[in-house]
Design brief:
single chain; 4 helices
Length: about 240
């Protein structure tokens, strides 16, 4: 899944029910936060166990609420599901999934639907999945090790985790895996050295991973690693520079 040009961010403008301020249609899976408000004081009081609400402001001073709920460890993979929720009337309630599809919970006073004015303007609420490979109990949903994932199976996530851990075990191992791929992508060995240094210092790590019919892509800081099954075996297929989605 080669990224051939800049990915455009369309800002999702969302404020408390009342006046819509310069609404624009979102991409459906992201909005831009410029001020992190942390855990808001008006968080739902009846959240599922382990869930967390965060709030932030976009460039237009509109507030977004994101509820992230954990899923139990399933065969070595922990997942969390994040969805946008909106302050509602006391009679409103948002249905929140709490496992892999069979259980849910109601949050009273909140809703999963944007206000009518925003829906008319084309706004779509944002949803996202997160995952990590772990043994035993899953970390808290706020753990930065969770990677945002789209259409990434448990098997592919675990294969990436194993291959990536091996590749970053030493500078020599990193170069052995990615040196030829950098040349194929049209970048220099100097570029490879920069990526290697950022990764091994811990200043860049996988943060977003997506798969489609053409393969899979992981964003590692401002760089991209493509990977896929080649002849039935996991393989990294390219490394290059691209904007974070």
């Amino acid at each position: 899944m080669r990224i051939t040009g800049p990915l455009l961010f369309l800002l999702a403008a969302l404020s408390m029910p009342g006046a819509a301020r310069g609404l624009v249609t979102t991409r459906g899976d992201s909005y831009q936060c410029v001020v992190n408000l942390g855990t808001p004081p008006d968080s739902p009081s009846d959240m599922p166990p382990g869930a967390q609400v965060s709030a932030c402001k976009d460039p237009r001073e509109n507030i977004h609420y994101a509820l992230r709920t954990p899923r139990p460890n399933r065969d070595g993979v922990c997942r969390a599901y994040e969805e946008e929720i909106f302050p509602g009337a006391p009679s409103d309630s948002a249905t929140i999934r709490t496992d892999y599809g069979t259980q849910s919970r109601l949050l009273k006073g909140w809703t999963s639907r944007p206000p009518q004015a925003w829906r008319v303007d084309g706004y779509r609420s944002v949803q996202a999945g997160f995952a990590l490979v772990a043994e035993g109990e899953c970390p808290a949903v706020s753990d930065p090790a969770y990677v945002r994932v789209t259409n990434v199976s448990d098997g592919m996530l675990k294969a990436f985790h194993q291959a990536w851990a091996k590749a970053i075990s030493s500078p020599e191992a990193f170069d052995k895996v990615f040196s030829a791929l950098v040349v194929k992508s049209g970048f220099s060995q100097r570029y490879l050295s920069g990526v290697r240094d950022r990764v091994l210092r811990g200043t860049a790590r996988p943060q977003d991973m997506r798969c489609d019919d053409n393969g899979c892509t992981a964003w590692v800081g401002m760089d991209v690693v493509d990977f896929d099954l080649v002849d039935g075996r996991f393989a990294f297929t390219s490394l290059y520079h691209a904007p974070v989605p």
